Amino acid sequence: MIKPIESVLIAGAGAIGLLAADSLYRYDRACVSILASGERFERYRRDGLWINGSRVDFALTGDTKTPEKYPDLIIAACKNYHLERLIADMKNFVGPGTIIISLLNGIASEELIGAVYGRERLPLAMIVSTDAQNAGGKVTFTQRGFINFGDGAGKAAGQKERGRDGAVAEFFTRAGIPFKYHEDDMKRALWYKFMVNVGANQTSALLRLPYGVFKKGGPMEVREAGEILESAMREVIAISRAEGINLDDSDIDAWYAAMRALGDNSYTSLCQDVMAGRKTEVDVFSGTVIAYGKKHGIPTPVNELLYRAIKTIEKRAAAAV
Q1: I want to staple 242 with a disulfide (CB 3.0 to 4.6 A). Which of 84, 114, 180, 296 is the partner?
Q2: Do 167 and 64 fall within a single domain?
Q3: What is the spatial distance between Cα 108 and Cα 231, in angstroms, rounded to a whole number?
Q4: Which residue, 91, 96, 33, is CA-closest to 66?
Q5: CATH number of the domain that 260 lies in?
Q6: Are residues 75 and 24 in the same domain?
Q7: β-strand 32-35 against 59-61: which pairing, if any?
Q8: Of 157, 184, 211, which residue is a domain's last?
Q9: Rounded to whole angstroms, how far apart are CA atoms 263 and 15?
Q10: Could you tell me which residues come within 8 angstroms of residue 297 by beta carbon, excluding any fewer than 6 positions away?
């Protein structure tokens, strides 16, 4: 029997990690801590971590020794290019019964984490409908969003996976964390978010424009920007059909509906990275689309252009440092 979740370790103190940490801190500040080591531990302790203008003194876990008590749940929420380091940082904190939820972008993090710690620990998961932004340990948001999770096997999942997911759902309910449990088709939901990231994140990053530009009928709408976004998304739809996921145009409509809740002047995470001159996650967005396109013989010209353009921006920013 899987025991109730009482303690959570946040691995990754970016926008999404701190968003989750803040919700848990409001529920029970003793139940949550932030994983940090070395320079990050000292910086977080010195400068603090900030949520919507207020410093929040989260407990910090930086000891590399085996803890007296393993966390019941680890929430992984870093950028994909930090995942290898995060997996290594987690090694002393994954106990026999620890559940891991990955809120990373893309469609591969569960497999990568699971290859090291056991795939059975991880339901598929993602967060949607948040506008959280991070600048140097200071996170701002107006929408907390929803954590979506479930097993890739759906109703065919084994008893252990159902028990694991039930423990997560019970804890999120108790802690007041907005969530949706996907009993049937979480894999499709994960691909839906991947489609959104490929279209919205990359197009907004290339153009350096906020959500309002893409809202149909809104005061800031630019039709041509929306056409780029939809073209990139339709390449994901074509690949999803070859993979048996079967996204369709109704999923693009669903994204437009969900975007209404986001601030007109808020920016996607990839756009924030480009504007700040940071490394981006373009490899797990258009880079993945291009790879799947080659696998299935499906043309991906829009994503190939987006990949080259964003890589150019990224490399020029790195050269200027």
Answers
A1: 296
A2: yes
A3: 23
A4: 91
A5: 1.10.1040.10
A6: yes
A7: parallel
A8: 184
A9: 16
A10: none
φ, ψ for residue 136 (rounded to 5)? 60, 45
200 shares its domain with 93: no
Whole-model pTM above 0.85? yes
Residue 208 lies in a domain: yes
79 and 137 fall within a common domain: yes
Amino acid letter, residue 290: I
List 60's β-bridge partners, or say none.
34
Tell me the backbone φ, ψ of residue 2, rounded to 5 degrees: -80, 125
Residues of the domain holding 120: 8-184
Residue recorded with tokens 């910090």: 60
80: DSSP letter: G
Residue 256 lies in a domain: yes
Query: 207 is written with which tokens?
Result: 């153009």
Per residue of the chain (321 residues), give pLDDT as tens: 678 999 999 999 989 999 999 999 999 999 999 999 888 899 999 999 999 999 999 999 986 667 789 999 999 999 999 999 999 999 999 999 999 999 999 999 999 999 999 999 999 999 988 888 888 778 999 888 899 999 876 665 676 778 999 999 999 999 999 999 998 889 999 999 999 999 999 999 999 999 999 999 999 999 999 999 999 999 999 999 999 999 999 999 999 999 998 889 999 999 999 999 999 999 999 999 999 999 999 999 999 999 999 999 999 999 986
**Distance, CA of 46 to CA of 182 (rounded, Å):** 40
110 and 219 both lie in a single domain: no
